[in-house]
Amino acid sequence: MFRSIYFGKISKEKTERLLELYGKEGSFLTRDSESERGAYCLCVRRTPFVHTYKISQYHGGWAVKTPPGVKPQCFETLNDLIDCYRAAAPDSMAPLLHPLEKRLVSDNGENQGKRFSWVAFLKIDTGLKCPRSHYTEESEGWPLGQHAKIQAHGLYNKCHYA
């Protein structure tokens, strides 16, 4: 599970945009921590925010960082940690309902799993908004001005649709 939802070294801002564009309530992914080498972040969409939980090595295993005085629950593997919190997240954590798998956000420019491509997302990341998934090529859900703006920037053909 961990490998399929691991996006590597992406920023907090890109994480938030990915979960906004491709996710829904309870969608989650993992990425490298920007502040601690060797640590990861578990990022969960819970409207109106993306909640981030740091995962670090702890006594030979892995644990989500806890407040001072609270002993973290330790897991042998990252997969065990994700599986346990998917089954029953602590009250202090947003529920992990929908894994945002990297393969659904393709990096080869092809649409997979009825999602927009990673390449299109990166190109549109220059300030233009990409619509949510499941919009059709006939521009359902696209404001006309935005549709024209994306065509003018040559991005329309790079955005593959479901």
From TrEMBL:
Superkingdom per UniProt: Eukaryota
Lineage, broadest ranks: Eukaryota, Metazoa, Chordata, Craniata, Vertebrata
Keywords: Adaptive immunity, Immunity, Innate immunity, SH2 domain
rRNA-binding in keyword set: no
Entry-linked InterPro entries: SH2, SH2_dom_sf
Domain SH2, residue spans: 5-100
Protein name stated in the entry: SH2 domain-containing protein 1A-like
Gene Ontology biological process terms from the UniProt entry: adaptive immune response; innate immune response; regulation of immune response; regulation of signal transduction
